[in-house]
């Protein structure tokens, strides 16, 4: 309807105004990072800070990757907008968005993969916590497609997905790196990416239909150490409960 379109347009306009200041800061940082002397110094500083948490993936930028470009600005703006407009909020109901399993391209829902009261964590690390939690990896749109903000040192060159089959094929490449972990693809409407503000990447834990852990927006906010800490505490609480009984 006309009213719905009008409300949606106003919501998008408000989102653009809200995220504009931090987007401009991010754009300035990208411009600075195109100077190799700045890039190397920044990366050295970030890596020295991350040495204590070895499992957190470091920010890696090759010298040949251009940071400030029209494609990079579009990607960063897209990520900021999704983050602001996401419906997933800590302590609130987890969005039950549509996903597609790799083996059978028939739509399912994110919470279909949750079992009873067990936490469902969107990261393959949870295979190490299979006694207390389940793992689910959701493959979303490419952050660095070969026909967009390309990454020269990416292991695979994948173009922007033009069909569900292309997205599933790319997700199967990820499945090779995470054997034994449940991997699904986002719908072509990007419903999960939009609901969870997952672009470029993000960590979540859902339990009893609620978001109980929400990581920062990747790559800089992608902290596996935080996810592990939450799961360690949860496992300890379960053990304490058993001891009391």
UniProtKB/TrEMBL annotation:
Does the entry feature the keyword Transmembrane helix, yes or no?
yes
Task: State which residue ranges cross the membrane.
Answer: 12-38
UniProt function note = Responsible for the deiodination of T4 (3,5,3',5'-tetraiodothyronine).
Tell me the protein family, please: Belongs to the iodothyronine deiodinase family.
Q: Which is an annotated GO molecular function term of this record? A: thyroxine 5'-deiodinase activity
Annotated InterPro entries? Iodothyronine_deiodinase (IPR000643)
Q: Which Gene3D superfamilies match?
A: Glutaredoxin
The organism encoding this protein is Cyprinus carpio carpio
Keyword list (alphabetical) reads:
Membrane, Oxidoreductase, Selenocysteine, Thyroid hormones biosynthesis, Transmembrane, Transmembrane helix
Give GO terms for biological process.
hormone biosynthetic process; thyroid hormone metabolic process
Its recorded name reads Iodothyronine deiodinase
